Amino acid sequence: MKKTYFLYIVIAFMMLLNVTTIIFVWKYYPKPKPRPNLVQPLNPGDFIIRELGFNEKQRKDFDVLQDEHRQLMNENRDSVRKCREQLYELSPSGDTKQVEKFAEEIGKLEKEKELITFQHFQEIRALCNNRQKEKFDGIIRQVLQIMKTSPEPVSPSKKKR
């Protein structure tokens, strides 16, 4: 009888200890800090449309320009990727002339990318009325900053995978 009495006391003590621990954790454990409102990354196109207040016709024209721009950029990105692959395939051979040739080609393609982007902004600006042009000139740096922080668009061929 003394053994079972002792076990009952031990079990009661353990239960009391568990309840105390749970209460302590609920009351004194640090609560997680509230997370700030998670905002979706801003899309440069949506930002331009919103800030400039494009009308429906401007939005449709803008969408066409954006699709054309995306296609040109995807082609450019694919060309750069292929060129880099060829460059690093030469790595073991160390053929300096070929390495320089591919490095030059990559440089030309990067230059082309910048010119494509510049031309795209000129075309967007051409869609604007005079008031919107002034506003566009004021927000272009913000758009470029958003472009730096937003993920690169995925080409349709990569989405299918």
Could you characterize the architecture of this molecule?
By secondary structure, the protein is an all-alpha fold. It has a domain at 44-148: Up-down Bundle (Four Helix Bundle (Hemerythrin (Met), subunit A)). 78% of the residues lie in helices and 0% in strands. It contains six helices and no strands. It has helices at 2-28, 44-52, 56-89, 96-127, 130-149, 156-159. Helix 2 (44-52) runs antiparallel to helix 5. It is elongated.
How would the blueprint of this fold be written?
Blueprint: H1 2-28, H2 44-52, H3 56-89, H4 96-127, H5 130-149, H6 156-159
Helix pairs in contact: 2-5, 3-4
Short description:
By secondary structure, the chain is mainly α.
List keywords for this structure.
single chain; 161 residues; mainly alpha; Four Helix Bundle (Hemerythrin (Met), subunit A); 6 helices; 78% helix; 0% strand; elongated; disordered C terminus
